[in-house]
Amino acid sequence: MKTDSMTNLLKQKNAEISTVKANKVLVALELLEDKERPSSKYPGKVKKFRALTPKGLTYGINKENLNSSGQTSPYYYVEKFDELLSLIQKEEG
Fold it and tell me: Based on the structure, what is the number of domains in the chain?
């Protein structure tokens, strides 16, 4: 299935919600989670990122970030985004 970033999909749908707010809702719905990994550039520092939970994998995939070992970025299935956006808007409203 084709995937895209939350930012691009929200723009395509002319959704009146920011990516930051949508991600906060997805965390509240337990579809997205905050994760950490050690910084490869700064010893002792931690890098934060978000990843889809097993429940969230219904709506997308975690793509490996080629520039950051052990870090992923969530990408969402285009075909399922309407359903996901509906969940976000229901929770937000």
Answer: 1
Q: What is the pLDDT of residues 24-42, one digit of tens each?
A: 999 999 999 999 988 888 8
Phi, psi (rounded to 5 degrees) for 46: -120, 135
Average pLDDT of the chain? 94
CA distance 93 to 72: 29
The C-alpha atoms of residue 74 and residue 51 are separated, in whole angstroms, by 6
Host domain of residue 33: 3-92
Determine how β-strand 46-52 pairs with β-strand 32-38: antiparallel
